[in-house]
Amino acid sequence: MNLNIPENFLSVKKPDHPFVYNGPDYLISDRENLIAIFIPTKKEQKNANYLHYRLLNSRIAYPAKTLMIILLDGRVNYQEQENFGKQYFNKIIESKDLNRLELLFNEKLEQAYLKAIKKIQREIFDYQAYMQIKNEEYMQTNPFNYQDVDSIKIQLKKEKFYDYFNQKEEISRGPIFEYKDNIIGVKSLKKHYSDLNELKPFYEYSIKSSFQFDDGIPYAQKDFEQPKILNLNKIPYLKSDPLKPIRIASLFGWNLRNVDSIDQIENY
Q1: Do residue 186 and residue 95 come from a single domain?
Q2: DSSP H or E segment with residue 87
Q3: What phi and psi values does residue 89 have, to the nearest 5 degrees?
Q4: Are 101 and 138 in the same domain?
Q5: C-alpha pair distances (Å), 98 with each of 4, 30, 37, 51, 95
Q6: Three-state DSSP class for residue 153
Q7: Mean pLDDT, the chain, as a whole number?
Q8: pLDDT given for residue 233 in this prediction
């Protein structure tokens, strides 16, 4: 959907962010404040989980004062998205409301809300920096020679976890397993696919198993720092931003590894 943004505002469609793998559809600024607009896709209209992933990743990464807004089509009854919007977004709008953008920019988030967001951002990015250093040290000393990383799957069982968004126990549907006290993800990255997209299931696993929204604030749960190992056949890479897949893996607590046996996992 193309939005008619008044020319006196700065706007970016599909903005890129170094710590966001799938963020808002638009960023709009009046040169002082920032609005992020989310337009539910057909997939998100059917399943709000995917909208939740986008919002939480953006809420962690963008400045705390960013107003997170969901834009719904007033002609269609998206009851699930409307309920989700009221609970998690700062505001719900329709396209016609864009003609009064200055009113949206006049809305300010409460200081207690901003303080809570900034606190959780500091905690998460301190951990991200720690994980990034660990991952870079590993990549510098390990050539990622093992290509048959999938071979360890037969020795593992599917991970059972608590989904905080849906508030229920789940068994992982993706290649995510448990072994002793470790969570182990396994992925053989393919040459002609985007590594960032290939790693999305692992980012999303961390979101639903480690974060819980409370009054629009994404709090990290005790599971967040549980050891998570992501066994890959090569160092992930994105042409436009080479380290982005690694930065985001670090943000969500994944230790990158290249092993072909459980013994090597045990020595981690």
Answers
A1: no
A2: helix 79-88
A3: -90, 160
A4: no
A5: 7, 13, 11, 21, 6
A6: helix
A7: 92
A8: 97
Instruction: Express each pLDDT in 207-234 by its tens digit.
Output: 999 999 888 899 999 888 888 999 999 9
In the block, tokens 């670090």 appear at 250
Distance CA 26, CA 43 (A): 18
Residue ranges of E strands in 5-55: 10-13, 26-29, 34-38
Q: In this structure, what DSSP letter does residue 17 have?
A: B
- 46 and 168 inside one domain: no
Last residue of a domain, one of 56, 89, 109: 109
pLDDT confidence of residue 79: 61
Taking alpha carbons only, the member of 231, 224, 239 closest to residue 256 is: 231
Question: Is residue 115 in some structural domain?
Answer: no
Which residues span the domain enclosing 19? 10-109
The answer to whether residue 124 is domain-embedded is yes
Torsion 222-255-246-169 (CA) sign: negative
User: What is the number of H-type helices and E-type strands within the chain?
Assistant: 9, 14
Residue 139, CA atoms < 13 Å, CB-side half-sphere: 19
Collapsing DSSP to helix, strand or coil, 180 comes out as coil
Does residue 36 sit in the same domain as residue 161? no
More confident residue, 27 or 166: 27
Q: What is the side-by-side strand order in the sheet with 254-257?
A: 157-158, 176-179, 182-187, 228-232, 254-257
Say if residue 87 is in the same domain as residue 140. no
Radius of gyration of the chain (CA): 20
Q: How many residues does the chain have?
A: 268
